[in-house]
């Protein structure tokens, strides 16, 4: 009897009319690190100008792990907050050649002196994240400070792979990142964002945001210099590379980005001239963005399996460090047009599921925590009525809208905490995805149901907490005691319960 009960603990099923869930807490995969989002671009405006009440509401939605009187979470409990370290295009105003002031960013370094009052709006939410107990913070650069670039701007030349940086300024650059990382006590710093894009001016001579490309050899050279500075300074901040613009650039050595691809082996294979795996300040993590690799489904899965194969070969962890919906995704869903509803939430949940289960990501981050755009790029939106966009109408105050995508991410981020291990889980229901996680005290199962409603009869003696995001629910709490678990149509539901000892 004792042997049978032990087996029952590690392989449990729920079933009703043929639907069945199985999971095995002793078959484990990656150790989870974090779920995050970034403070680009709207936070600079929202954090500086918006009423305190609205800023606090945004912070609660993003960071809180508290529940209301009914047991429903007040927020999605992010465990990583990404802070954009600006290059100084804001101070240049229109001379920055960046079209929108929303896409420019201030710099902490001006005329050789540090001004820690800069980026005030972003600092509000960085401090809020820390107050809510978010365990990890990461500072990332789109461009080096303008006084260190070749062209004196925070945008690239437009030439593929040409790093907009004056190499004679490398000591100033490493000192800058050391000072900023030390001041804000960043857990991590990511010096290069989407190195495969050129970030140059369009036909009008203007660009959309701060940014610069960089090739693998320059990235390795600069990272070695930075790691040396970090080691000399004895700071605890860790370096994360390379924030690849697409996941295929991590694994494919013969893509359309020569000298900027095959990045897993370029940076972490000992035989490579760009090897960085021996640097004590560099985290053994490869990071990349899930853009343009999520549709159709065979590409979604094969790309992520290829990433997983390579990280295993090179003893690495993988972070999916930025995603929102861009492009037309093989006709499945378009990036244009705000959607606060379940269609986008379900698509995003499918991507999260694939990144966690096929690529075995240990960290997963969304792009814009707050957006004013008529685009599927935000978790929270800020509009004045029908007036959408990064404009003066939304700059100083606007209404807040929480999206189903926010709460769908919360089905993962709120319950899958740092240190949990992913476990084997399966469901024999069509149109359903499932993944499982445990910390040896609690089991968390996340079900993504793109199909019709169904029920699971609870066959175990334990109480099960359920949290449902659907067309009319946002992480709504219900305790399944002596009945059934309802899985609504077009929903994401998290099941949480404790081990029996």
Q: What is this structure's SSE topology?
A:
Blueprint (H helix, E strand, L loop, with lengths): L1 H9 E6 L2 E13 L2 E8 L1 H7 L2 H12 L16 E6 L3 H4 L16 E2 L2 E2 L5 H12 L4 E6 L28 H15 L3 E3 L25 H18 L4 E7 L3 H4 L11 H6 L13 E8 L7 H17 L3 E6 L19 H16 L3 E11 L6 E6 L8 H4 L3 E4 L1 H10 L7 E7 L4 E7 L3 E8 L4 E4 L6 E7 L2 E8 L3 E4 L3 E8 L3
Description of the structure:
The chain has 501 residues and is of the alpha/beta class. It folds into 2 domains: 104 residues, Immunoglobulin-like; 386 residues, Alpha-Beta Barrel (TIM Barrel), CATH 3.20.20.80. Helix content is 27%, strand content 28%. The protein is built from 13 helices and 22 strands. The strands form 4 sheets. Strands 1-2-15-16-17-22-19-20 form an 8-stranded antiparallel beta sheet. Helix 6 links the parallel strand 7 and strand 8. Helix 2 packs across helix 5, helix 6 crosses helix 7 and helix 11 runs parallel beside helix 13. The longest helix is centred in the middle third of the chain and has 18 residues. It starts with a helix and ends with a strand. The N terminus is likely disordered.
Q: Poorly predicted ranges (pLDDT <50, ≥5 residues)?
A: 1-12
Range of strand content: 25-35%
Number of strands: 22
Total count of helical runs of at least 4 residues: 13
CATH architecture tag of the largest domain:
Alpha-Beta Barrel
Categorize the overall geometry: globular
Q: Kindly, what is the distance between the CA atoms of the first and last residues, rounded to a whole number of angstroms?
A: 15 Å
- Overall mean pLDDT stands at 94
| Backbone structural class | alpha/beta
CATH topology (fold) name of the largest domain: TIM Barrel
Largest beta-sheet characterization: 8 strands, antiparallel
Rg: 23 Å
**Oligomeric state:** single chain
Strand order of the largest sheet: 1-2-15-16-17-22-19-20
What is the name of the CATH superfamily of the largest domain? Glycosidases
CATH level 1 name of the largest domain = Alpha Beta
Name the helicity range: 25-40%
